[in-house]
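Q: Convert this sequence to C-alpha coordinates.
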Amino acid sequence: MRRYLIPFVIFLGLFIFLGIGLQLKPREVPSPFIGKPAPMFNLPILGKEESSFSPDQMKGQVWVLNVWASWCVACREEHPLLVDFAKTHSTPLIGLDYKDKPEAAQNWLKQFGDPYRLSVSDMKGQVGIDYGVYGVPETFVIDRAGVIRLKHIGPLTKEAIEKKIVPLITSLQS
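A:
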Protein backbone atom coordinates (compact mmCIF):
# COMPACT_ATOMS: atom_id res chain seq x y z
CA MET A 1 0.00 0.00 0.00
CA ARG A 2 2.78 2.40 0.90
CA ARG A 3 4.60 1.90 -2.42
CA TYR A 4 1.54 3.25 -4.28
CA LEU A 5 1.29 6.34 -2.10
CA ILE A 6 4.33 8.17 -3.53
CA PRO A 7 3.32 7.71 -7.22
CA PHE A 8 -0.25 8.73 -6.32
CA VAL A 9 0.97 11.93 -4.61
CA ILE A 10 3.19 12.74 -7.62
CA PHE A 11 0.27 12.09 -9.99
CA LEU A 12 -2.02 14.26 -7.89
CA GLY A 13 0.54 17.11 -7.88
CA LEU A 14 0.96 16.94 -11.67
CA PHE A 15 -2.83 16.87 -12.08
CA ILE A 16 -3.17 20.02 -9.96
CA PHE A 17 -0.44 21.85 -11.94
CA LEU A 18 -2.10 20.81 -15.21
CA GLY A 19 -5.44 22.13 -13.97
CA ILE A 20 -3.86 25.46 -13.01
CA GLY A 21 -2.07 25.69 -16.36
CA LEU A 22 -5.29 25.13 -18.30
CA GLN A 23 -6.85 28.12 -16.52
CA LEU A 24 -4.13 30.53 -17.74
CA LYS A 25 -4.78 32.80 -20.70
CA PRO A 26 -1.78 32.64 -23.10
CA ARG A 27 -2.63 36.00 -24.71
CA GLU A 28 -2.38 37.65 -21.31
CA VAL A 29 1.20 36.80 -20.44
CA PRO A 30 2.26 39.34 -17.84
CA SER A 31 4.82 41.68 -19.27
CA PRO A 32 7.56 43.21 -17.14
CA PHE A 33 7.32 46.27 -19.41
CA ILE A 34 3.80 47.31 -18.34
CA GLY A 35 4.10 50.55 -16.38
CA LYS A 36 7.69 51.10 -17.52
CA PRO A 37 9.09 53.46 -20.16
CA ALA A 38 9.01 52.07 -23.68
CA PRO A 39 12.51 51.11 -24.82
CA MET A 40 14.11 53.74 -27.03
CA PHE A 41 15.22 53.03 -30.58
CA ASN A 42 15.98 54.89 -33.77
CA LEU A 43 15.13 52.94 -36.92
CA PRO A 44 14.76 53.78 -40.61
CA ILE A 45 11.24 54.44 -41.84
CA LEU A 46 10.07 51.79 -44.27
CA GLY A 47 10.13 53.24 -47.78
CA LYS A 48 11.95 56.37 -46.59
CA GLU A 49 15.20 54.85 -45.37
CA GLU A 50 16.89 58.28 -45.34
CA SER A 51 14.48 59.24 -42.50
CA SER A 52 14.26 57.63 -39.10
CA PHE A 53 11.76 57.32 -36.26
CA SER A 54 12.22 57.26 -32.50
CA PRO A 55 9.55 56.91 -29.78
CA ASP A 56 10.73 60.32 -28.51
CA GLN A 57 8.86 61.79 -31.48
CA MET A 58 5.59 60.56 -29.94
CA LYS A 59 6.04 62.17 -26.50
CA GLY A 60 2.86 63.94 -25.48
CA GLN A 61 0.67 61.57 -27.54
CA VAL A 62 -1.00 58.26 -26.81
CA TRP A 63 0.00 55.86 -29.58
CA VAL A 64 -0.11 52.24 -30.62
CA LEU A 65 2.90 50.18 -31.71
CA ASN A 66 2.03 47.10 -33.77
CA VAL A 67 4.76 44.53 -34.43
CA TRP A 68 4.17 42.78 -37.76
CA ALA A 69 5.93 41.12 -40.71
CA SER A 70 5.07 40.19 -44.28
CA TRP A 71 5.93 36.55 -43.56
CA CYS A 72 3.53 36.43 -40.59
CA VAL A 73 0.35 34.45 -41.29
CA ALA A 74 -1.44 35.74 -38.16
CA CYS A 75 -0.68 39.32 -39.24
CA ARG A 76 -2.94 38.80 -42.25
CA GLU A 77 -5.72 37.83 -39.86
CA GLU A 78 -5.50 41.07 -37.86
CA HIS A 79 -4.61 43.42 -40.72
CA PRO A 80 -8.18 44.30 -41.83
CA LEU A 81 -8.93 45.26 -38.22
CA LEU A 82 -5.90 47.55 -38.17
CA VAL A 83 -7.04 49.18 -41.41
CA ASP A 84 -10.47 49.80 -39.85
CA PHE A 85 -8.86 51.06 -36.62
CA ALA A 86 -6.75 53.56 -38.57
CA LYS A 87 -9.83 54.83 -40.44
CA THR A 88 -12.01 55.26 -37.35
CA HIS A 89 -9.56 56.40 -34.67
CA SER A 90 -7.20 59.34 -34.59
CA THR A 91 -4.68 57.53 -32.38
CA PRO A 92 -1.35 57.17 -34.22
CA LEU A 93 -0.67 53.58 -35.26
CA ILE A 94 3.04 52.91 -35.78
CA GLY A 95 4.21 49.67 -37.37
CA LEU A 96 7.37 47.80 -36.40
CA ASP A 97 8.27 45.53 -39.32
CA TYR A 98 10.05 42.68 -37.55
CA LYS A 99 12.89 40.66 -39.13
CA ASP A 100 11.62 41.31 -42.62
CA LYS A 101 13.00 42.44 -45.95
CA PRO A 102 11.93 46.04 -46.63
CA GLU A 103 10.87 45.20 -50.20
CA ALA A 104 8.64 42.35 -49.04
CA ALA A 105 7.11 44.56 -46.34
CA GLN A 106 6.39 47.40 -48.78
CA ASN A 107 4.79 45.00 -51.27
CA TRP A 108 2.67 43.49 -48.48
CA LEU A 109 1.40 46.93 -47.43
CA LYS A 110 0.61 47.82 -51.06
CA GLN A 111 -1.33 44.59 -51.46
CA PHE A 112 -3.31 44.64 -48.20
CA GLY A 113 -3.43 48.37 -47.39
CA ASP A 114 -1.27 50.48 -45.12
CA PRO A 115 -2.97 51.38 -41.83
CA TYR A 116 0.19 52.80 -40.27
CA ARG A 117 1.11 56.44 -39.91
CA LEU A 118 4.56 55.01 -40.57
CA SER A 119 6.39 51.71 -40.24
CA VAL A 120 9.97 51.23 -39.17
CA SER A 121 12.20 48.39 -40.25
CA ASP A 122 13.67 46.19 -37.49
CA MET A 123 15.58 43.82 -39.77
CA LYS A 124 17.85 42.47 -37.02
CA GLY A 125 15.02 42.09 -34.49
CA GLN A 126 16.85 43.97 -31.73
CA VAL A 127 13.96 46.36 -31.01
CA GLY A 128 11.60 43.39 -30.84
CA ILE A 129 13.89 41.82 -28.25
CA ASP A 130 14.04 45.11 -26.32
CA TYR A 131 10.22 45.16 -26.19
CA GLY A 132 10.03 41.52 -25.12
CA VAL A 133 8.31 40.36 -28.30
CA TYR A 134 7.54 36.63 -28.17
CA GLY A 135 6.38 36.49 -31.78
CA VAL A 136 4.45 38.53 -34.28
CA PRO A 137 1.96 40.08 -34.18
CA GLU A 138 2.09 41.93 -30.89
CA THR A 139 0.58 45.28 -30.04
CA PHE A 140 1.52 47.87 -27.42
CA VAL A 141 -0.39 50.92 -26.18
CA ILE A 142 2.00 53.66 -25.06
CA ASP A 143 0.88 56.72 -23.08
CA ARG A 144 1.82 60.40 -23.39
CA ALA A 145 4.82 60.00 -21.10
CA GLY A 146 6.19 57.10 -23.19
CA VAL A 147 5.12 54.40 -20.71
CA ILE A 148 3.80 51.04 -21.95
CA ARG A 149 0.25 50.57 -20.67
CA LEU A 150 -0.79 47.42 -22.52
CA LYS A 151 0.78 44.54 -24.40
CA HIS A 152 -1.44 42.32 -26.53
CA ILE A 153 0.13 39.08 -27.71
CA GLY A 154 -1.10 37.55 -30.94
CA PRO A 155 -3.48 38.89 -33.55
CA LEU A 156 -5.89 41.59 -32.45
CA THR A 157 -9.56 40.73 -32.48
CA LYS A 158 -12.53 43.04 -32.82
CA GLU A 159 -13.37 42.28 -29.20
CA ALA A 160 -9.84 43.12 -27.96
CA ILE A 161 -9.91 46.43 -29.84
CA GLU A 162 -13.39 47.39 -28.63
CA LYS A 163 -13.12 46.17 -25.03
CA LYS A 164 -9.46 46.70 -24.15
CA ILE A 165 -7.55 48.94 -26.53
CA VAL A 166 -10.07 51.68 -27.36
CA PRO A 167 -11.24 52.13 -23.72
CA LEU A 168 -7.63 52.29 -22.54
CA ILE A 169 -6.73 54.85 -25.22
CA THR A 170 -9.80 56.92 -24.32
CA SER A 171 -8.89 56.92 -20.62
CA LEU A 172 -5.25 57.82 -21.36
CA GLN A 173 -6.27 60.69 -23.60
CA SER A 174 -8.56 62.30 -20.99
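The helical segments are 2-23, 73-88, 102-112, 126-130, 158-173.
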